Amino acid sequence: MAGRQSANGRVSVPRAGGGRQRNRGSRVSTIPSVSGAASAPASGPVTYVDIQQSQEFKDLRRSFRRFVFPMTGLFLAWYFLYVLLAAFAPGFMSNKVGGNINVGLLFGFGQFLSTFLITWVYVRWAGRRLDPAAAALRARFEGDTGGTVDTGGTVDTGGTVNAGGAVNAGGAVDAPAGGEVR
């Protein structure tokens, strides 16, 4: 299977099931052969679209959003309260609490504390709720593919690559027009 280079310099590589993989510089995306297809053919690899359309992924994303959006809203409200009080209530913010410590300084320190607190709460919440569900989803779909492809770095394939099992590339997979990916 040799890749074809398009006019814009991208390499398109055929894949099992009739779809094509398009090299987009720093990432490779799998494009289903039938527009709007909900799942990959039985013989082809599982695509991101297949995973994205699964109920487990939708539940995972919903759970993430239920935590992140309210937490972000609360933090932004707290931050803008600090900024608005500093701008429009300097008398209040300059009230001494003790020694050279004033209300504005406590609010500023509170910004740092709240950032660390939100991070700590998120890590604990994700470890209990999000990570196990994501691991189960990943295991389910990786089990269907028969192998693992992990791109955390860069692989430059100037020739032929035969990835029959697990590939840990560490980042982008770059297949030049003359190269072949199997």
UniProtKB/TrEMBL annotation:
<dbReference type="Pfam" id="PF04341">
    <property type="entry name" value="DUF485"/>
</dbReference>
<feature type="transmembrane region" description="Helical">
    <location>
        <begin position="101"/>
        <end position="123"/>
    </location>
</feature>
<keyword id="KW-0472">Membrane</keyword>
<feature type="region of interest" description="Disordered">
    <location>
        <begin position="1"/>
        <end position="43"/>
    </location>
</feature>
<feature type="transmembrane region" description="Helical">
    <location>
        <begin position="67"/>
        <end position="89"/>
    </location>
</feature>
<feature type="compositionally biased region" description="Low complexity">
    <location>
        <begin position="32"/>
        <end position="43"/>
    </location>
</feature>
<protein>
    <submittedName>
        <fullName>DUF485 domain-containing protein</fullName>
    </submittedName>
</protein>
<keyword id="KW-1133">Transmembrane helix</keyword>
<keyword id="KW-0812">Transmembrane</keyword>
<dbReference type="InterPro" id="IPR007436">
    <property type="entry name" value="DUF485"/>
</dbReference>
